Amino acid sequence: MTEILVQDVAGGGVATDTRVVDHPAWAALKNAVEEIRVWQSADGSIAFDAENAPARADADTALDRVVAAVEQLSPLLPHGTAYHRALVADLRKWAEGGYAVPDFLDSLMEFHPAAERVDGRQHLVVFPMYTQNGNPDRNLEAVVLRMVWPEWLSELEAARYDNPLFCGITFEDFTSGYDTNSAVLFPETVAVREAPERFTWGGIFCDREAARFRRVTEAAVGILGVELPDDIRDMLADQRRCQQAFVLWDMVHDRTHSHGDLPFDPFMIKQRQPFWMYGLEELRCDLTAFKEAVRLEAEGNPVGRDVQYAVLFDRMFRFPLTGDRVRNYDGLGGQLLFAYLHKRDVVRWTDNTLHIDWKRAPEVTNQLCAEIEKLYRDGIDRPKLVHWFAAYDLVSTYLSPHPGSRWAKGPDALDLTQQPRKLVDDVLPDEFPLSMFFEALSKKMKSVIASTKGITAADVEKAAA
What we know:
Elements: H1 24-37, H2 56-73, H3 81-96, H4 105-108, E1 122-129, E2 139-148, H5 151-159, E3 166-174, E4 184-185, E5 202-205, H6 206-224, H7 230-236, H8 239-256, H9 275-298, H10 302-318, H11 329-343, E6 347-350, E7 353-356, H12 361-379, H13 384-398, H14 420-423, H15 436-450, H16 457-464
Parallel strand pairs: 3-5
Antiparallel strand pairs: 1-2, 2-3, 4-5, 6-7
């Protein structure tokens, strides 16, 4: 989406067709933020009495450069004026407080990218924050992004998939916390004095998702000898088309967390559960997006078919192999989808070649979605522990538990006098190890997976050229 130029009239007709990252102030801002980041502790504070700590005057000078750059860039983004003013105030307040644990609640409450979703609109974001699947510390970060909100997506959201908080976004540039595997921008990650009653937005970088999907899928297809139909090959060669698939997938996935027969609160907030419960929830949301994509394809929407490819390949080839094996719930969901399709002959690993029955894939994938939906619906009438065991039975029908698992031995192997949350401690870090197929594939894909850290659309396009 970076080629889109927008004439933004929200600020009284001020033109915003200048890329923020091309302005000299962006480079100054980025450099100043990077300087501050290395001084910060895990909680975002700066301890001036620590070893290798900066002089207070150096910290003040760097922060002044951040403020000056924000003020120079703000006129390019008139829709963000209120946020920029609050941001400068929060930066000054942080300095005046001696760079203690930062509190950027006031500026967070002025940032509302979902209030007016304009395709191609730029936003400058500066917060002390951790980056999910990236940097766990609350360092200062700066990001320039663009909104992805084409007319067809806006119409689908309004008519069928209401999700007023969702923001599809792409990177323009970013500081070190996003030179990672993180592909989200969530308000929950920002350092604040107290959590607000409700959040008003959540952003997912569809360009990063599309770029790593393309790189990993192309490598896996080559290693496994998968014969791709022409339309899938065309999709993998087209970054913009992949981004469109991911922004639709993300929008439907995101809303599904609070839709359906849910035996628990949306997103399972503040609930300690075995990691396969989180794996099933994420897979349910993905398979709901898949199911809706099948419907959209039947109605003549070409993005629907692309979403199906994206879900299948990302879930089967990237998810099981990404991250470590400690309670990797996304990896578990990917393993489950592959095993389910394999047991039903939709995928076959024969003669060192992976064969996919493209005609049966939608129907059988939807069957797995239906099994998970039934588990949820039945769970409404079950005690928590019974529901956990029912979910374990579903997963272990298709994936073999670790031979040393206590949960696999059933309720008699556990101390049921404890609260259910205490029994989570009896779950092995890798309760469902990789199959021999994925172990072998992991060795061949390891470097490819690693190469997607910090990937951008420009990276994958450069490699393709």
